[in-house]
UniProtKB/TrEMBL annotation:
Protein name from the UniProt record: CUB domain-containing protein
CDD domains: CUB (cd00041)
Keywords, sorted A to Z: Disulfide bond, Signal
Organism: Plutella xylostella
Secretion signal span: 1-29
Domain CUB positions: 36-165, 182-302, 338-459, 475-593
Highest taxon listed in the record's lineage: Eukaryota
UniProt cross-references to PANTHER family, sorted A to Z: CUBILIN (PTHR47537)
InterPro entries with a match to the protein in the record: CUB_dom, Non-NMDA_GluR_Accessory, Sperma_CUB_dom_sf
Amino acid sequence: MLRPNRMEMSALLLMFLHLSMHVVEEGHAVNPSCTCIRFTSTYGKERGTFSSPDYPRAPPRRACLLYTFLAAPHQIVEIVFTDFDVYKEHLDCTRGDYLKVYWEVQGPGPPGAVNERSAWARALCGSRADVPPALYSPGASLVLEFHSGVKESNSTGFVGTFSFIDRRLFETDGVRVPGTDCDYQFSHSGNRPAHGRLYSPQYPSSYPNNVRCSYHLHARSKERVKVVFEEVSLQKGDISCLRRADIIKVFDGRDTNAPTIAMLCNELTGYEVLSTGSSLLLQFTANSAAPGQGFAAAFHFQPPPDSTAADSDRLLKLSFGKAFESLGPEVSATTSSCHQEFSSDGTKHGTLSSPNYPAPYAANTHCHYEFFGRGKERVRLQFQDFYLHKPADSSIDCTNMDSLQAFVNVDGRLEKVDSFCGTDLPKPVMSNGPKLMLEFRGLHSSRHARGFKISYSFVENFGITTGKQLKEFPCAFVYNSTEARNGTFASPNSPGPYPRDTECTYFFYGGDTEKVHLHFTSFDVEGVLPCEAVSASDYVEFSNHMTEDSRYGRYCGQMKEFHVESERNFFKVTFRSNDRLDGTGFMAIYQFLEITDEYQSPIQDDAVNLDGFFSGLLLLIAVALPQLHQYIIG
């Protein structure tokens, strides 16, 4: 290596100040002008700091510095940038100022050496928001190459911390299937525990691409398998899981022929699934060119609902966890005289009502009602009667009033999704997973306050009553022109608010000479144009193909009636909601038309064509009547 010049010596002295607990030594470099600084756990120091030359001043131009981190064989390297400001000269961060990350440090030379033939894993530049919260090495070494270009800038460089952590903290608790790289078996037998953990390959580092891993979980007879995905980080964004190359599929059984409970992609936390029977299969497929961090999950083999181990208090804690306890001791207590639990194991539907219904409930009444489904079941509530005491000077947000509140599990915690008060009959409510909780607070009451009556059901069709549901997806429905030339379709739980964290797909298949015409009669999907993740928008999108279709943009917000038409005999509609706000969704009419036909709106502008108006009205009645009948008897 060439002798360092004065500027490089200044950088080395600065690094000595940051790394008083660590050994700094020279090593091999990418080129003769690059100075190498090495950090090792050999001397028993597990953490420290590092920074760019002259931080917090702008780094010198044409600088090249290698930061080599060497952990013990049983360890991995964690890098966290506490400040990051590297001048972004090019979008791909491969020219000008950049920081390259080398995961796999191989080849001749001492451990941790890199050369011009080494392959870097990713390049970083820009601000703190442009870099991940943490970097983890898949092995015991990691190298950062910092390079500054010719252009002057006001960037301050970077400062970060590094730690050497035990890789055994991220070992999957199952038994590796012989002859596979990442297939595991988990069983509740012998001395094996009833709970454990599972991870994507190389977690918490990036998983490799072109990999498929299967996690087979088998409980004892009558037990259930519960899996909580504590962290899923595959790709950034909110793209439909049907279009993602990296995806987690959860099957409600022993193999891929079982119904699909969930398809997970993008990024999420605290997502929970519960099997219908004693087996569950998780399949992780990664085919993208830019792998994410992967996933971390916990599993638990739950005892049968009728066993002594599954008493009310235990079931409550297993299902809602600390999130439920956070509501306070008054709510989390299970000794309330009006506390009730409803499990789909007992019945798929029934009714519940406030105390003394239809007589007035007593003042200071406090009840909570918990619902526990399984598999892909969602809890759906439909109000038959609702009449709570409403003071004359009451607020519009149910504060300090007699009220009924609905809670669902979001990111591992209970979150209120709606409050109901007064005398207006609420619209249907649907959970975002197999669990839902209601809390009733009757603070005042009156002689007219008869309370409420609700019919509940555990449904697998998301409240969508038209089309043929596909078991290959959690929520997907097919509409064939050979079965019906026209009809209706709607968002989940219509006409009530759609559930959070939900993706539903509608496939339309026409004949060879047909096209698909959609007429949206109502549309209320939370979001703002262009309906992307940056604005936390839910959305509806359309495609003439199974993949993305650039002809159609995303639709969100509140819109008047509008039409969308396919170019050929296949059309795909995707609805996707996030874990935040929600709307009432959409209702639409579909028609299969001959490609040469022009669509006639059921209600013409200015109503100049009475024949067309009445024809359209009859069509609306014909296609909407089955939905209305189902809603009335539901």
